[in-house]
């Protein structure tokens, strides 16, 4: 059932009604506009931008125009503590190591496709965006002209999720913002996808009827990934995601602005008293230069210093509370040194628990994405077509920090118990070896080289005598080389053993 039937409650609605509905309920809706603006701000904060938002913060905090300017000028120099990025990267650890994906049929082609599309790298960024957006649209397509497969990670600022009229948790369409730089009234600005068709809207949200075409996929061309399922929150998209992280980010940035400003200004300030009418104006008041003053003018100082530690304390407090809301302990957030590997592992336990929860989300996302990729490739990229029968994914476990000796001991024990093998260990230690076939070639090369080394060592020992004995000694005495070190009794002159009495005497 297409969107006309969905919005018409059974009977097809007109394309004019479809455009007006999408305009009023989504694209031009004030609530949706606020949601998109907040998403744009989060994206700017994560990328290190958003200076204009903090200047607005300063404008609200102070009433004097000069005070606003003096602090606003330092906004660009006070962004070293990016709370939103730090917390997101601590949480997004699902793809800290590459995941292993397999299909039962044509797996070799599937592995080549995964490398071509850079799936781990793209979904690693998707995991980070989920940490602060909580909802993203992941779409797969084949770029026209070049035939290059692409996974698009679309933030909430660039799409609208259209729900069913009877169920706010049912996704029936996705509207993508594709507004170009130069726009006229008839310029295609929005692309609408449903399971049945796809079409475009112009700048006035009118359906461009000539763009309507069937959706050959028979389903939406992507996956709506959410931290909280729609059925659990009663709607498709979260209204105010990561509001605590945004507030912490802004407050910490504001505190850093004050720290920079007061570290410059909060010191001893000089002022002049007396008749300054004959004094030269515009002199540089700096410790490297003298000040020329007329007789009778007195230089005074006033101490305007303040404790700058209060800004650092406020910053740490805000950051730690915001991180605690997300389950990140202060010891992990501050990257404090651990006295042992066991202590480091204990500190990581809260994050590993959170990682397990996020793996459940990304496993479902990966499964749906694999189905989309299989259908699209069968139509548009047949050289990399594959079937999803037997599809499975294995997210690598985060290992504890071990020394090289400990790693070798753990590997030997696990191999003895049948928990691993040499080929998988080679792949784990050298990620460039993507398959077991490549690892086997590397293993065979190592064995060949070591076999040649052992053969050469045997030749060298045969030439010099085993265990350090010379070949001349062996030939003359007729004894084995190691018998010289056995501590045998020394024979007397006539070939017999020395009497015990003689030895004692």
Describe this structure in words.
- The protein is of the alpha+beta class and 505 residues long.
- The protein has a domain at 402-480.
- 47% of the residues lie in helices and 14% in strands.
- It contains 18 helices and twelve strands.
- The chain has helices spanning 3-7, 15-27, 30-46, 51-61, 65-72, 83-91, 107-117, 119-133, 230-233, 243-265, 309-325, 330-333, 341-380, 404-416, 422-429, 436-464, 471-477, 500-504; strands at residues 100-102, 135-142, 149-154, 159-163, 171-177, 188-193, 197-202, 207-214, 222-226, 268-273, 298-303, 392-394.
- A five-stranded antiparallel β-sheet has the order 4-5-6-7-8.
- Strand 2 and strand 3 form a beta hairpin.
- It is flat.
- The N and C termini lie far apart (116 Å).
- Residues 478-482 and 488-505 have low confidence and may be disordered.
First and last CA, distance: 116 Å
Q: What is the percent of helical residues?
A: 40-55%
Low-confidence stretches: 478-482, 488-505
> Helices and strands: which structural class?
alpha+beta
Largest sheet: 5 strands, antiparallel
What is the overall silhouette? flat
Order of helices and strands: HHHHHHEHHEEEEEEEEHHEEHHHEHHHHH
- Please work out how many helical segments DSSP would assign: 18
Mean pLDDT: 86
User: How many strand elements?
Assistant: 12
